């Protein structure tokens, strides 16, 4: 019995690492533990991903943390998917953004990061609000029919809940500069000199300032005699779809 218990404990650990765990195994363990035959149903792999993340958020709270913020970066890449894949992606985002009905107090918050032109370039110009539901319904399968409401919910979230980031002011830039300089010094065991970075303009993004400072410190660490200069160039976002991502 001890061997069986150890094997089951190892199976649980593997499950939280991503391996499958059969319902039959859980029922057998419940029966051996005197719990009868619990009502269990198979859970789709997509839903298991959310359950694992929600469990980990609860685990962080048990360890003394406030919770977990889950960041989805570069969400604008969805705009390059085929229409069907965009529909699936919108529905997936909706699943992460909506509150868990079974756990309304879940200590998990999902945040999306995307370019501010996505609504105009994809939802409006590509007419995703109309086109995506039509494409999903045209598949005429229960799976795709179930995605219609979720895709619409995901698009509404992008349209209505997007918040533009406030450009950093001089005080925030100075604070970020000091912190990054200290981190760079600690990471590489040296005393980084002051660097110029980018000219402080209202249109310059925080990530551009950060990248410029770090690049210049990296170059000076390798060659103290070098005089680095940084220029920011705006690259236009491509919304060209990738048809190879479409499904039959």
Record the SSE blueprint.
Layout: H1 2-16, H2 23-32, H3 45-62, E1 68-72, H4 83-97, E2 108-112, H5 118-124, H6 128-138, H7 142-161, H8 170-188, H9 206-222
Parallel strand pairs: 1-2
Helix pairs in contact: 4-6, 4-7, 6-7, 8-9
What does this structure look like?
- This protein is mainly alpha-helical and 248 residues long.
- It folds into three domains: 1-42, no CATH class; 44-164, no CATH class; 170-222, no CATH class.
- The protein has helices at 2-16, 23-32, 45-62, 83-97, 118-124, 128-138, 142-161, 170-188, 206-222, and strands at 68-72, 108-112.
- It has a two-stranded parallel ribbon.
- Strand 1, helix 4 (83-97) and strand 2 form a beta-alpha-beta unit.
- It is extended and about 75 Å long.
- The relative contact order is 0.10.
